[in-house]
Specification:
about 425 residues; mainly alpha; 3-stranded mixed β-sheet; about 65% helix
Length: about 425
């Protein structure tokens, strides 16, 4: 759609981000789509239903992005965040992913689930949201009166030297071939990866017979595709006899229609991710709620509001709205620690269970697959340790539970087991 001004295009894209997220929030609430719950079901009960729904969302997103990019509807080469970027920060993907996985387990859900739970009346998740927002914000923004961020102080000195500078992009196709053939190989690889995921997903009779799992997988995957399209292809601006994309126009120094002549935040080809946008809410509030068309309203913030209100709508329709608070002080501290780990880890890993494991994976970026695996590992290990400590109580020290969990996952030999399997 072509607009006569950037302001109208910007506003429309923000409303699209909000609207798509609203639908996703309602469906995720209705179907109980939860990535932490998916790992828990698999680790604790051997139930793979929700993990298959998660993988179906990945497959749908991969198919959509691969096909639409192949026919030049949009490109996900240069995005926010830079999934295919040439800086391959493998150590940050691993450390951040593990931190996030631990955090989402302690905090009763990932960033997206936190928004869903807020919409359902969960006041614990409001606290988790606030802590995530502050940690994520100060990971990339300096503390008042300083030039230091959490990242620059705690991580950059030792994680950045491990970053590998690639000669090209880090998506699977670019790592295998170069030149014009990359375009075609991306499509082929995308379809192969998606086919493998769908084969695994639909092998399960239980999954095939579960409407909610299929609905969640399709809606989350399609939502990611729709957001890519909304930010990467939907809006064009006619100016000076030329037609610019929303993103290309934003790279120009033409800001007569934008508040105070400043470029708005976050104008880029992007889809759904939630930790950095939750952090952006702190910046938005710090600027005094400048309004929907203000410089600090971003695609991500619009998505955050959309998911919360979509979840709220379904909670009210289904009469599932319930106020919930912490059971005790220990519960409070556990959730706060989880939120700190999610806020920091989600930024370090360049995304969360949606931002990396669905949106990032849809670009076939190697870093996204590493972050996804690290998140699952961190969450699964935490659940195993919690379970052993609960069953054995005083007998199970953290190290005994940790070593036994590694044995369970076949990462250590059976002879090193410290606690009997349960």
């Amino acid at each position: 759609m072509t607009f006569e001004s950037f302001a109208s295009a910007h506003s429309t894209v923000l409303w699209l981000a909000f609207g798509i997220a609203f639908i996703m929030g309602a469906v995720v609430n209705k179907t109980n789509f939860c990535t932490m719950g998916a790992v828990s079901d698999l680790v604790n009960m051997g139930d793979s239903g929700r993990i298959r729904a998660w993988m179906m969302a990945m497959a749908v997103a991969i198919i959509g992005v691969s096909a639409l990019e192949f026919v030049d509807i949009f490109s996900v080469n240069d995005t926010r965040p830079p999934y295919r970027g040439g800086s391959f920060a493998w150590l940050e993907y691993v450390i951040g992913g593990v931190m996030f996985g631990i955090g989402m387990t302690l905090g009763s859900g990932c960033g997206n689930k936190t928004l869903i739970r807020i919409g359902g009346g969960n006041l614990k998740s409001v606290i988790v949201f606030i802590v995530i927002s502050l940690c994520a914000y100060f990971m990339v923004n300096p503390f008042p009166g300083t030039d230091s961020t959490i990242y620059s102080v705690l991580f950059y000195p030792w994680t950045n030297p491990a970053t590998v500078s690639l000669s090209g992009r880090q998506d699977l196709a670019s790592l295998l071939v170069s030149g014009e053939s990359v375009h075609t190989i991306r499509l082929v690889l995308g379809l192969v990866v998606a086919a493998g995921l769908l084969f695994f997903v639909f092998k399960s009779d239980d999954f095939r017979n579960n409407f909610d799992h299929k609905l969640a997988g399709v809606v989350v995957g399609v939502s990611v595709i729709a957001a890519w399209y909304a930010s990467g292809a939907f809006a064009t601006i006619k100016a000076d006899g030329e037609v610019f994309s929303w993103v290309k126009y934003a790279s120009n120094d033409v800001w007569s229609l934008v508040q105070e002549g400043k470029a708005p935040s976050g104008v880029a080809v992007q889809s759904y991710t939630f930790i950095n946008p939750i952090g952006e809410v702190t910046g938005y509030l710090a600027n005094g709620l400048p309004g929907w068309k203000g410089n600090t309203m971003t695609f991500g913030i619009a998505a955050v509001f959309g998911v919360i209100l979509g979840s709220l709508a379904w909670s009210l329709i289904s009469k599932g709205f319930r106020i919930e608070w912490f059971v005790n002080f220990k519960d409070f501290i556990t959730h706060v620690i989880g939120a700190v780990l999610m806020g920091i880890g989600g930024i370090l890993a360049l995304g969360c269970t949606i931002g990396q494991a669905v949106t990032g994976v849809s670009t076939l970026a190697l870093g996204s697959f590493i972050a996804f695996a690290s998140i699952v590992f961190g969450s699964a290990m935490t659940m195993k340790i919690q379970y052993y400590k609960m069953v054995y109580e005083d007998e199970a020290s953290f190290m005994k539970a940790f070593i036994t969990a590694l044995v369970d996952f076949k990462l250590l030999p059976a002879g090193m087991r410290r606690l009997d399997a349960v």
